[in-house]
């Protein structure tokens, strides 16, 4: 489904999204603060990852992990770890993704980066580099995850206002996964948005050399 690009020809011209699709992903996309009761199917949640997994990462390391939490006891537990101002948002979402970092992501290197399997041992012995790679690449994957939510016609509410240690002890007791972000997912309720905040424009952000 996502592998439509013909890479067998060097003359391949990459397709470009039309204005409507661009708006769905960027200029028209908003962070939702409340959600309609409309359910979100398991198939749709699976489709999010089927797209988001194509994010590029350094040495193809892919350190991000996703835990989907549904309404019920699991979501109640999750809400208890959210900061006060975020609790109602998570409590009202039909689906919530906890995005977490696999701190032992290097274990997968022979599988995901077979052109240099020795990198596994290098990273096993270098906590600093491994930690930097985990931080950078999981954040990158989280951005793609939000884009995938939007691409599938859903709204995302990413949040980092929660008790990471409490959440990790509760949902990831083994200690290998560390929570990075909680993303509320669903169809937006009426008035689900705050006023749009301004973005920096090119004059403040882009330079040329
Ligand atoms: C990494 C990250 C952490 C965030 N944490 C919170 C949060 O804890 N609580 C909250 O209400 N919104 C949170 N937000 C939402 C942002 O405030 C929001 O995405 C931003 O203001 C842009 O809003 P817009 O997409 O509607 O323009 C977070 C967003 C991101 C990407």
CATH topology: NADH Oxidase
Q: What string gives the helices and strands in order?
A: HHEHHEHHHEHEH
Q: Low-confidence segments, ≥5 residues, pLDDT <50?
A: none
Number of strands: 4
Structural features:
209 residues; alpha+beta; NADH Oxidase; 4-stranded antiparallel sheet; 9 helices; 4 strands; globular; binds flavin mononucleotide
Q: What's the gist of this structure?
A:
By secondary structure, this protein is α+β, with helices and mostly antiparallel strands. It contains nine helices and four strands; from the N terminus they run H-H-E-H-H-E-H-H-H-E-H-E-H.
Describe the structure.
The protein is 39% helix and 14% strand. The protein has 209 residues and is α+β, with helices and mostly antiparallel strands. Helix 2 (42-52) packs across helix 7 (127-151) and helix 3 (73-81) runs antiparallel to helix 4. The longest helix is centred in the middle third of the chain and has 25 residues, at 127-151. The chain is globular and about 50 Å long. It is built from nine helices and four strands; from the N terminus they run H-H-E-H-H-E-H-H-H-E-H-E-H. Flavin mononucleotide binds at residues 30-31, 86, 158-161, 181, 193, 196-197.
Give a topology summary:
Blueprint (H helix, E strand, L loop, with lengths): L18 H7 L16 H11 L11 E6 L3 H9 L2 H8 L3 E8 L6 H4 L6 H6 L2 H25 L3 E5 L4 H8 L5 E10 L15 H4 L4
The protein binds flavin mononucleotide.
């Amino acid at each position: 489904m996502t592998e439509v690009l013909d890479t067998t020809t060097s003359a391949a011209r990459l397709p470009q999204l039309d204005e409507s699709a661009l708006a769905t992903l960027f200029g028209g996309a908003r962070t939702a603060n409340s959600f309609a009761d409309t359910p979100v199917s398991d198939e749709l949640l699976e489709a999010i990852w089927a797209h988001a997994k194509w994010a590029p990462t350094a040495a193809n390391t892919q350190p991000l992990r996703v835990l989907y939490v549904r309404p019920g006891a699991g979501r109640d537990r999750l809400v208890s770890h959210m900061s006060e101002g975020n609790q109602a948002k998570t409590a009202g979402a039909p689906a919530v993704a906890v995005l977490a970092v696999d701190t032992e992501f290097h274990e997968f290197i022979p599988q995901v980066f077979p052109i240099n399997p020795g990198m596994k041992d290098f990273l096993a012995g270098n906590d600093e580099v491994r930690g930097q790679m985990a931080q950078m690449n999981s954040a990158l994957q989280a951005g793609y995850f939000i884009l995938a939510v939007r691409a599938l016609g859903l709204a995302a509410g990413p949040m980092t206002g929660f008790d990471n240690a409490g959440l990790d002890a509760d949902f990831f007791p083994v200690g290998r996964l560390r929570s990075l972000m909680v993303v509320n997912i669903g169809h937006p309720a009426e008035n689900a948005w705050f006023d749009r905040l301004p973005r920096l424009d090119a004059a403040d952000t882009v330079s040329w050399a």
